[in-house]
Automatic annotation (TrEMBL):
DNA-binding residues (ranges): 31-50
Name of the molecule in the record: TetR family transcriptional regulator
The species this protein was found in: Streptomyces tendae
Entry superkingdom: Bacteria
Domain HTH tetR-type: 8-68
Length: 181
């Protein structure tokens, strides 16, 4: 890159480095200095792109939430019949719970922030609304709300359990919640 040109991907590298660092050290271990080193950017560029660590964390977690909503969309948009939707939800739970440990850590770090601080609670509320909206394409609002909570809970339990429940039990649980619809 020629002198005087700015790196057009610097902001994205900083956000990616932030999530990687959170996954490794937790939010408590994050600092501008560590993120800059991880992203391979000058320390001064941190304050150029973000007003402070809260803005950086909130934007990084917003990007992560957008990613998870995309996973929901991928699983739910192609399903048509009630049985296809139930299978899509089962697949979604297993995809999320069997995914990288990094994702589980990021979700838990975000939830911890949300339990204490309003901007992160608002982010989680927007994320839940988006997830439920996708589920409401197939189920009534009350069922979508229950199903969203089931997805979150089973994902966590399956990811942390030494002997997670198999796909058949997940499928049966999803069927029980959605069969009245």
């Amino acid at each position: 890159m020629a002198t005087g040109q700015t790196d057009p991907r610097r902001r994205e590298r900083i956000l990616a480095a932030t999530l990687d660092l959170i996954a490794e050290e937790g939010v408590a271990g994050v600092s501008h200095r560590k993120i800059a080193a991880r992203a391979g950017v000058p320390l001064g560029s941190m304050t150029y792109h973000f007003t402070g660590i809260d803005e950086l964390l909130l934007e990084a977690f917003t990007g992560y939430a957008d990613h998870v909503v995309t996973v929901f969309e991928h699983h739910l948009t192609g399903a048509g019949t009630p049985e296809e939707v139930r299978e899509a939800v089962t697949d979604l739970i297993h995809t999320l719970s069997e995914g990288p440990r990094r994702d589980l850590i990021l979700v838990q770090e975000l939830y911890t922030l949300a339990a204490r601080r309003e901007p992160y609670r608002a982010l989680c509320a927007r994320w839940m609304r988006r997830s439920r909206t996708l589920l409401e394409l197939h189920f009534p609002p009350d069922t979508a709300r229950q199903l969203d909570a089931l997805i979150e809970g089973l994902t966590l339990h399956r990811a942390l359990d030494d002997t997670p429940a198999d796909r058949e039990l997940t499928r049966e649980t999803v069927r029980r919640i959605t069969s009245a619809d």
